[in-house]
Amino acid sequence: MSFFKFSDVMRKRQTLSFEVYPPKTDRGMEKLPGTLEKIGKLNPDYISCTYGAGGSNVGKNREVLQMVRKITTPLTHLTCIGQTRDSVYQQLGQYLDEGVSNVLALRGDLPFGWTGTRGDFDHATDLVAFIRHEFGDKFEIAVAGTPGGHVECRSLEEDIAHLKQKQDLGADFILTQLCFDLDQFRTWLSRIRKAGVRIPVDAGIMPVVSKNAVLTQCLSHNACAIPRDLALVLTHHWFDTDPEGNEIPGVKEAFREEGLDYTVRLLHAYIAEGVDGIHLYAMNQYSNVAELLRRSGLRNIPAEP
Ligand code: FAD
Question: I want to staple 206 with a disulfide (CB 3.0 to 4.6 A). Which of 15, 87, 281, 283 is the partner?
Fold first, then answer.
């Protein structure tokens, strides 16, 4: 492999990376380069860009990756939903031509009512095998890991066996699903290591800044545990409208304040665990990640005005 690999860097030091998504609107796309420029100044090792299940936003995904390329190394997510061998082959070739050689190989979240991917690849394992078979070591491949266990899996043991399969088929590192429960994360990490999964683990961390975002992320697809200290943040700011349904001034801001402090503690706990990388779901928001890095002491940033 001629390019440097994040997994090699992670074996030497803890990396820091961010995740962004392709905005739905033209206005969002116009604003993104400015946001990325500021995010780039936080000196991330890489920035990843999500991929809409079914390739709904593939054009914008490629546009965003090119914006990222001006700032740091891009990593693209790629899913199996509705993909044929030809479509994946063609897209991977395009990524390489456009200077993107890091890919997170995912199955993808199944759209509502679907029971399978309706494509040539059923699982991320198939995608990893295909990329290695067709492109050799031209790509560094990341794969998802789910510390709480994937919702469709019958047991954590089985889930871990599939993760090991991803490694054996050629995955270079693991990017984890959000996990607010450190005990659960610790147990998972120790079990994957015992099962022979040796590749680095980059911990995905979601900044807690909005009640709805936390609830959606935890409950929509992931069945992610909400431990007591996070539940307290939610409870303290649960009522954000009055009986007439009007927004109560200041509640959202107070949630963000307490949520950021909670996330800083979580960040410190993950760092203390010695994870190989920290991956912040930046969600195209500079101020949240900047404030987190400032409060946690990870970057020297002036306070918010
Ligand atoms: P898989 O590894 O295929 O696992 C899905 C289920 O099948 C699990 O229960 C697993 O145990 C089981 N399984 C795995 N391999 C096999 C096999 N060979 N045979 C039988 N069973 C198997 N989704 C998007 O649509 N777009 C994104 O950009 C996106 N980004 C993400 C970023 C991160 C960091 C993470 C963690 C997830 C992201 N997702 C995204 C969500 C992800 O697509 C879902 O979590 C999805 O439900 C599972 O993806 P996977 O790659 O883990 O699937």
Answer: 281
